[in-house]
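Example (one chain per record):
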Amino acid sequence: MNSNEQESPTPSGGLAAAEAATSDVTFSELGLSAAMLRALTDAGYTRPTPIQAQAVPLALKGRDLMGLAMTGTGKTAAFTIPIIERLTGGPKRTRALILTPTRELCQQVEESFRKYGRHSKLAVISVYGGVGYDPQTKALRGGVDVVVATPGRLIDHIERGNADFRELEVLVLDEADRMLDMGFAPQISKIVARLDQFRQTLLFSATMPPEVEALARKYLRKPAVVQVGRRSAAATTVQHFVYPCPKEKKADLLVKLMTDHPMDSVLVFTRTKAGADRVVRALERGGIEADALHADKTQGQRAQVLASFKDGKTKVLVATDIAQRGLDISHITHVINYDVPQQAEDYVHRIGRTGRAARTGDAFTFMCADEIAMVRTIERVIGKEIPRISVAGFDFGT
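Predicted structure:
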């Protein structure tokens, strides 16, 4: 969490903008408690990232807030830290609700609360699908301070009478753009309708399409806007390359690149679940150990695959876009777009899995003839041309 240069936040659509924090600010200057500073020190952090330096003081004041920053910039700590500070010492009732798009992100947000709240004794639970209801029901009815949930499973618990939000003080809409992409707008509306309108609401997003701004106008009251970097900006710590390659030769190109070049930790994106499984089989035939991550895996299988990749036991993780957001794995050295993403914004999210926390990374995109137009759209969105690399025997016409 080292703070680097940052841009001043830019107002959007008339929303109030926050003043930029200085780049040399430390956590001790943000008005945090001794217990929180001790937890941050225990975790090895002394300086906030730009989004944290700007967002934390505003959230501590009770302001509604919209935080806009690309992936890997520390948005999760930007809301977990002030929430922990606000709730410490209060009654065991649900006073904070964080809505996230995926179960993996739920788990990571819960982990963040436990890391920074280790001296606060807050009770935190993750609520998501793919696992049994009973442990979640018991925790919700027993009383917890913080609920981190995916919208669908949370509505199930609300309809069963398990969730009580009468004492709720803070709502967080995390990865708001991704939740809208996944069609959660009706569920979000249904959940928010049950909450106190005088709550504090924090919205965090990597991008700011019109739908996210509409969501902010609907649920936030005179929010401050904290923006780090321009919208749709690709991480500056990542080098981008495009490899022209016929579709039928992509698997062989992937094996060749991984055999010829040192790659410590590789995240490969495919468009489909079947495609991810095919790529894993191709890598294994080439003597490269790999795992697949997609929605056909059970929750237990997904957790095991992620743990193996995170621990470095598995070198290559082949995933559908289920993994493009919310994966907080700092050591990924390469992101490979085996299939070009159909949305330019998805390219930004995918490559944001590498080059995190000021580290450098490489993003390779395999482009067949049918994907040329999509690559050109990506280049327009990120504001630069991506160099092409021709590999003998793989480029078009060779």
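Caption: Confidence is low (pLDDT under 50) at residues 1-23.
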